[in-house]
Amino acid sequence: HALQVLLIFAKEDSQSDGFWWACDRAGYRCNIARTPESALECFLDKHQEIIVIDHRNSRYFYAEDICRSIRATKPSEHTVILAVVPRTSADEEETSVLPLLNAGFDRQFKENSSITACYNELVQIEHGEVRSQFKLRACNAVFTALDHCQEAIEITSEDHVIQYVNPAFEQMMGYHKGELIGKELTELPKSDKNCADLLDNINTFIKKGKEWQGVYYARRKTGDSIQQHVKITPVIGQGGKIRHFVSLKRLHCTNENNKQVLYVFHVVIFTALSKLIFFESHSFKCKNRRKDSIDVKSITSQSSDAPSLPTRRYSSMARIHSMTIEAPITKVINIINAAQENSPITVAEALDRVLEILRTTELYSPQLGTKDEDPHTSDLVGGLMTDGLRRLSGNEYVFSKNVNLSHSHLSVPNTINDVPPCIAQLLDNEESWDFNIFELEAVTNKRPLVYLGLKIFARFGVSEFLNCSEATLRAWLQMIEANYHSSNSYHNSTHAADVLHATAFFLRKERVKGSLDHLDEVAALIAATIHDVDHPGRTNSFLCNAGSELAVLYNDTAVLESHHTALAFQLTIKDSKCNIFKNIDRNRYRTLRQAIIDMVLATEMTKHFEHVNKFVNSINKPMASEEISSHSEGSDCECTANIKNFPDNQTLIKRMMIKCADVANPCRPLELCIEWAGRISEEYFAQTDEEKRQGLPVVMPVFDRNTCSIPKSQISFIDYFITDMFDAWDAFAHLPVLMQHLANNYKHWKTLDELKCKSVRLPSEN
């Protein structure tokens, strides 16, 4: 959640306005209260992290009384309260802050209505006191978790004074924590079963900052010795010095038949704490720029009948613990946790590392190693796989949102048979992978999508499936093509036609055809047609950085892809003449619509590796295993039949298909590949130019038209995004022609790069 601020000002003036707009600039959520009663009510409802109270005069309320009433509540423990005090003149003596501190204020702010001054004050509080409060809150959460868990932990200071033991430790050793806290380890009885120099060896290790683990005898309070497997980790703190030692102890069981072992997990307190702090502080980076209502009374009165926040929280937690539905990843983690119980320490530790990896949200995104750290790769990854950085400048990037229903002067055929001969002749070859889309672009006056769409949709029986006339389909294609920007060098209707062509080509491959239903085919062709409609020729990162209307509308998430699908459906259903869905029943429409949306969203690059890896793990690997074990000629039919039985697998295939169709340029014949490379580079150059003009962050600095090496950018794109994906798709769909083109094109770019040529061709070829 965004940081929340409560302003308590009896009257609106330049000072309250200054703080209001400072909150807006910082991306904080802000409430204003006018009376002590509404202020307390709002705070108990919202639990704001910062409160600003007007302390300049006592005509309307006493600021110190309000502060005390808020401090008397439990939630205020982690709140920073700021007093706005009058400015003092040069000859006036500075007043003491002690009365303010005694009343519960944390800071004072000398009256200054400058938005920048207010902004600076709030940001300093966020980065100072507020973050410290979050650390304390996280610390409490960690210790609460340790107190209630079954694992035993002992934490000591650098001088080996015991600072914390949890109940599991008390149970193991027979002591109450009150008997241990504050004592030095040397004060506790030692077992005489240890080697004479064992303690010296342990101290030597841990004082050097090294972790020690081994077998150690400890004496319980009852006097009996128990053998433990001990692991002690030094915790480095301020100044790089050792500040704590955290110990893990589990009973060392030599009897193989005795599997009832009490495991005591080693928890490095500051590691856990840092993770919690990261999640807390990370939320500040995702700023919510929405303003809350100023009318605090109306906010609180609406929820007066609802259960209190703590009550809701506890009932929710109870429901979570009683849930019978488990996500697959939860089941996996539970299985691993159970396996740890009876595993040797080395296996248990390895499984801990596995669990750490599984709990990350970025399971499918590879981390760039040193071999990949070239600027072209990192810029492509940054530009295509992130949503950009939020700016506070207020820069807006707005592109044309006019619904373009006008048509150019080129006549559109009444039927598929009524096509000019020059176009019809070109379309005779549209089933070939080597079909030249740029020739069709030229003869159709940059309107290839209508003509190619009519031909492909007729071949796949789209009109019959949708129960719509050819005239409706033609009007729909015209309307969609009219809403592509012909001014874009790359993301125009020619690119849409190219992706439609690739999708149709893939749908004819035997294994793809056998895995999908007719509805899937129709959804794929429609998705390919609309997948970039109204594209502004700028990346998602650019739109987010510029604070565009679309980025705000879609919360900086899959901005363009969400817009393409939403606009396409809006345009389609608002005009009966081009509504291709008007004659299909509701259920079929819902299924078709969801499939189309899912495929278009799959073209967004932030989840590229997730889609590819899921396809490999769920389609490629099981299919390879089946083929090896089957050894029968009918195995391929059996594999595709199995896929049809699992809708999730069909979804993975459709996603992979449109992803490959969308970026198939490097797999086209060399001349087409070169043309596409030039076009996408020009679009990125134009974006970099505009970013510099507007003072926005430059998302892909290598795409500077004065310095960029197009061959290097193509090599990086193929290495990082294309090769693995098309290897996986080829293994499923069998695409030898594409893979040969990819190898040839890669060789072309490598040759240009070795010759230090930055353009798409050798100078002699231009």
TrEMBL record:
Identify the cofactor(s): a divalent metal cation
Q: Where is the PAS domain?
A: 145-188
Q: Which reaction(s) are listed as its catalytic activity? A: 3',5'-cyclic AMP + H2O = AMP + H(+)
Q: Pathway involvement?
A: Purine metabolism; 3',5'-cyclic AMP degradation; AMP from 3',5'-cyclic AMP: step 1/1
Amino-acid positions noted as binding Zn(2+) 1 in the UniProt annotation, renumbered to this chain = 495, 531-532, 662
Positions annotated as active site in the UniProt record:
491
| Residues that coordinate or bind AMP | 491-495, 532, 662, 714
Which residues are listed for Zn(2+) 2 binding in this entry?
Answer: 532
Q: Any note on cofactor binding?
A: Binds 2 divalent metal cations per subunit. Site 1 may preferentially bind zinc ions, while site 2 has a preference for magnesium and/or manganese ions.
| Record-level Gene Ontology MF annotations | 3',5'-cyclic-AMP phosphodiesterase activity; metal ion binding
PDEase domain mapped to chain residues: 415-756
List the keywords (alphabetical).
cAMP, Hydrolase, Metal-binding, Phosphoprotein
What EC identifiers does the entry list?
3.1.4.-
Gene3D superfamilies named among the record's database cross-references: 3'5'-cyclic nucleotide phosphodiesterase, catalytic domain (1.10.1300.10), PAS domain (3.30.450.20)
Its GO biological process annotations read: cAMP catabolic process; signal transduction
**Database matches in SUPFAM superfamilies:** HD-domain/PDEase-like (SSF109604), PYP-like sensor domain (PAS domain) (SSF55785)
Q: Organism's domain of life?
A: Eukaryota
PROSITE patterns reported for this sequence: PAS, PDEASE_I_1, PDEASE_I_2
Family label: Belongs to the cyclic nucleotide phosphodiesterase family. PDE8 subfamily.
The UniProt function text for this chain reads: Hydrolyzes the second messenger cAMP, which is a key regulator of many important physiological processes. May be involved in specific signaling in the thyroid gland.
**The protein's name:** Phosphodiesterase
- Origin organism is Nestor notabilis (Kea)
Tell me the organism's taxonomic lineage. Answer: Eukaryota, Metazoa, Chordata, Craniata, Vertebrata
